[in-house]
Amino acid sequence: MAKNQENNQPELGGLDLQGQFGKTEQFVTENKKSLLIILGAVVVMGGLFIGWNLYHKSQDKEAQDQMFRAEQYFETDSLNKALNGDGNYPGFLKIIDEYSGTKSANLAYYYAGICYLKKGEFEKAIESLESYTSKDEITSATALGAIGDAYSELKKFDKAADYYKKAADKKLQNFSPMYLMKLGMIYEELKQGDKAVEAYKTIKTEYSDSQQARTIDEYIARAEAKL
């Protein structure tokens, strides 16, 4: 009986634990070199990630420090200096080039796009603004609306309508009525009166306190007359 108990002791739940441990030890022994290489690679990759993250943060801080003068030029409509710098401080274009991948470079795309829009360089405005990404609803909406403005100036009304709609769909009380108004006017240009009426009526029903709502009945009547 004791012998049977001794023989059965390593087996739990139908598993031969002693046998499994032996196989594991054998596997480690046979593959020791490969396992050490893998472990070393994991350590190196972890170190590289930490190093890259620290470098990225330092780059972003440096970019922020460098970009403040360009932002000042932007606020005063000194567009060329905002884009290209003043000889002492870089403009948005250099920030984008030298600090690629940082938050500051991403924001510089937004600023550069608005600068190009104001300068009438609409293709460049679109390119810059489409490179900008943000979770901030306000700048995201204004970037989309600005792309719509650029396409509108280029007489590409279908694309303008797409971007105005995206901007309006952000549902921002202070911005959506403006983009809906632009959207309705673009639809009128495209001879799509039904869609124009829908855009205008959305202003009336969902943004009744907006400035655009004060005269929206005139726009609705005009669009309906064209149906």
UniProtKB/TrEMBL annotation:
What residues does the Ancillary SecYEG translocon subunit/Cell division coordinator CpoB TPR domain cover?
A: 30-210
Q: Where are the TPR repeats?
A: 141-174
Q: Which UniProt keywords apply?
A: Membrane, TPR repeat, Transmembrane, Transmembrane helix
Q: Which residues cross the membrane?
A: 35-55
Q: Which InterPro entries match?
A: SecYEG/CpoB_TPR, TPR-like_helical_dom_sf, TPR_rpt
The UniProt entry, under Pfam families, shows: TPR_21
- What is the protein named? Ancillary SecYEG translocon subunit/Cell division coordinator CpoB TPR domain-containing protein
State the organism's lineage: Bacteria, Pseudomonadati, Bacteroidota, Sphingobacteriia, Sphingobacteriales
